[in-house]
Amino acid sequence: MTHPRILPLEGVENFRDYGGYAARGGRIASGQLFRAAHQARATPADLAVMADLKLATVVDLRRPRERDNDPSLRHEGFAAQVIHCDLGDQTEAPHVAFLRETDLTPESARAFFLDYYDKAPFEPRHLELFGRYFAALAGDQGPVLIHCTAGKDRTGLLAALTHHVLGVHDDDIRADYLLTNLAARVDVRLPMVTQALEASLGKRPSETAVRAFLGVDATYLEAAFASIQARSGSVGAYLDAIGADAATCEAIRARLIV
């Protein structure tokens, strides 16, 4: 796995720089925007790499139960502000319930994700977290890391919204989203994850279903933006409603576009 955006950490999947793209008025600075999966299995070498990034803010998009199950590991001297949200209860993540309760066919997996992305932009927890993230991004606070459990769905949506604010071309927004399929080492992890799911669930999921849960599909992101358009009228109106108004977005562009 070789790609200039991907940081090949040992115990943290899908860790990469989502800056550096051409944007309206210039190019997004590199080394300021990072995205990843959770860091509960970060090795000492991984923590050293993250220490060198000098993160100022970490946005943990996970549910409380996810955070409790896989607490983030931190390097010595870690001093970044951590943004998370306790809204909601301690119920399991939707994808966990899906894996346990359904037939795990390709069709059911696709239907699950299309429904998930339709609702995700308006999940109360996400509305709060996204708003706090954009407020932090508008301040001159240094590099930011956003992450969830796998670093692909909640994180992918938030990265795409950030790119929209910065004026990144739709093709690059899509390409960054789809880079998960390389950065998450889907092909490498597919057999072991399939085996683990079969052992825990008592049934063997299809390869397509497992691939869907490890990777991403462009139609899922399109579903999220279609939902935003339908419910809010525009992406701009959606952002304004969560506190990322015109002044905030301009401050973000002024800070990050070089």
Name a few traits of the molecule.
single chain; 258 residues; alpha/beta; five-stranded mixed sheet; 13 helices; 7 strands
Question: Can you put this structure into words, describing what you see?
Answer:
The chain is of the alpha/beta class and 258 residues long. The chain is 53% helix and 8% strand. It has 13 helices and seven strands. The strands form two sheets. A five-stranded mixed sheet has the order 1-4-7-5-6, covered by helices on one side. The protein has a two-stranded antiparallel sheet with strand order 2-3. Strand 5 (57-60), helix 2 (64-69) and strand 6 form a beta-alpha-beta unit. Helix 4 packs parallel to helix 10 (207-214). The longest helix is centred in the C-terminal third of the chain and has 16 residues, at 186-201. 38% of the residues are buried. The model has no long low-confidence stretch (mean pLDDT 92).
Write the layout of secondary structure elements.
Elements: E1 16-17, E2 22-23, E3 26-27, E4 33-36, H1 44-53, E5 57-60, H2 64-69, E6 81-83, H3 94-101, H4 106-119, H5 124-138, E7 144-147, H6 154-166, H7 170-178, H8 180-183, H9 186-201, H10 207-214, H11 218-232, H12 235-241, H13 246-256
Parallel strand pairs: 4-7, 5-6, 5-7
Antiparallel strand pairs: 1-4, 2-3
What structural class should be given to the helix and strand makeup? Answer: alpha/beta
Distance between the termini: 29 Å
Strand tally is 7
Uncertain stretches of 5 or more adjacent residues: none
Number of helices: 13
Question: How would the global form be characterised?
Answer: globular
Radius of gyration: 18 Å
Percent in helix:
40-55%
